[in-house]
Write a structure and sequence with these properties.
Elements: H1 2-11, H2 13-16, E1 23-25, H3 29-38, E2 45-47, H4 50-57, E3 61-64, H5 71-80, E4 84-87, H6 95-108, E5 112-114, H7 122-133, E6 139-147, H8 162-179, E7 183-191, E8 203-210, E9 215-221, E10 234-239, E11 242-246, E12 252-257, E13 267-270, H9 284-297, H10 305-324, E14 328-329
Parallel strand pairs: 1-2, 3-4, 4-5, 6-9
Antiparallel strand pairs: 6-10, 7-8, 7-14, 8-9, 10-11, 11-12, 12-13
Helix pairs in contact: 5-6, 6-10, 7-8, 8-10
């Protein structure tokens, strides 16, 4: 993931002009050195101890691209050294750690935000814009399917709750963003299907209750070979006046009730507008740009920690429900 972040910095002119990479830290020094070579960052301080490099370089920003179990210590260190911090997801591995990071950022007077890069794509922005327009009325239900079979190798294939913790948060966050509703509770069934090459939790089915009686359902698997969905999921948003579907790639369909006589009145197709702002549709680059703008203007970034913690609550609540077999309250 560090390469994805560095490519976004290198290849986006207004970000490249705003950021100077002054240090690279990895437990394996050779990995950091290889990044420095690949991205022409020979001037950057290379190290294996974050505290030492932070003290030496005194940066304004820490870009946190570590594995989830290291998140709390890395973000805490960055905040303690006066950095604004932009983190990979998930924000933390527990709600206790997430709340502690919220308090630490507030005490330090620094911004801590999370890279939810998949809400910064054209498809999600188009869904949000149509919902906000009121064209399909009040949202009553959101439904998403996610079925792929990636063979990553490495740490993901050894993780517990791998689908929920490492991937489903993108879809959960998008559902919350598009609907504009708050998550209240979740019931989830998690399995590791026959033939899975993951150690645990490669598939999950979850039902969320959102505010205003909106229901969000998620069906997903990371060990589903054959006909796949998009990485962005396949979506159906039901409103009081009509529906919107998106295949996660190029196909949008939206319609409202028609006027045909009989049991079913048919439907009338409507247009799905383009995103209001193209600069919000470039994934990592858009997240980083939003973060930098927030620092310079004093506003909050879209994925600031006290908002993103709601998406984390959806993930951790689903995991708790899967373990207990009971519905879990995630409204706090």
């Amino acid at each position: 993931m560090a390469k994805g972040w560095l490519r976004a910095v290198r290849d986006t002119p207004h970000i490249k002009d705003a950021i100077e990479i002054v240090g690279l830290v990895d437990l394996d020094r050779a990995t950091a050195e290889a990044l420095a070579t690949e991205f022409n960052l020979q001037q950057a301080v290379i190290g294996t101890d974050l505290e030492v490099v932070l003290a030496e370089t005194r940066p304004d920003i820490l870009l946190d691209v570590v594995i989830p179990n290291a998140r709390h210590s890395v973000v805490s260190a960055g905040l303690a050294h006066g950095c604004h911090v932009l983190s990979e997801k998930p924000m933390a591995t527990s709600m206790e750690e997430a709340q502690d990071l919220r308090r630490a950022a507030s005490a330090a007077g620094r911004i801590h935000a999370v890279v939810q890069n998949r809400r910064f794509i054209a498809g999600v922005r188009r869904m949000r814009r149509l919902v906000e327009s009121g064209a399909i009325g009040e949202v009553t239900g959101i439904h998403s399917d996610f079925f792929l079979g990636p063979h990553f190798g490495g740490f993901r294939e050894e993780m517990e709750n791998v689908l929920l913790l490492d991937m489903a948060i993108h879809t959960f966050d998008a559902a919350r963003f598009v609907s504009g509703k708050a998550p209240l509770s979740v019931y989830c069934v998690e399995t590791n299907p026959a033939g899975s090459w993951y150690a645990h939790g490669a598939a999950a089915n979850a039902i969320f209750r959102f505010s205003d009686d909106v229901v969000f359902t998620y069906r997903g698997s990371w060990c589903a070979e054959g006909e796949r969905t998009s990485w962005e999921s396949a979506w159906r948003i039901v409103g009081s006046k009509g529906m919107l579907t998106w295949d996660g790639e190029d196909t949008f369909r939206a319609a409202v009730a028609g006027n045909d006589p009989g049991l079913l009145p048919g439907f009338t197709s409507i247009d799905v507008p383009a995103p209001a702002r193209d600069e919000e549709t470039h994934g990592h680059a858009s997240v980083i740009a939003d973060f930098l703008d927030a620092i310079s203007t004093g506003r909050e970034p879209e994925t600031v920690n006290h908002d993103n913690i709601k998406s984390l609550a959806m993930v951790l609540g689903a995991i708790e429900s899967a373990k207990s077999g009971q519905s879990v309250d995630i409204s706090a």
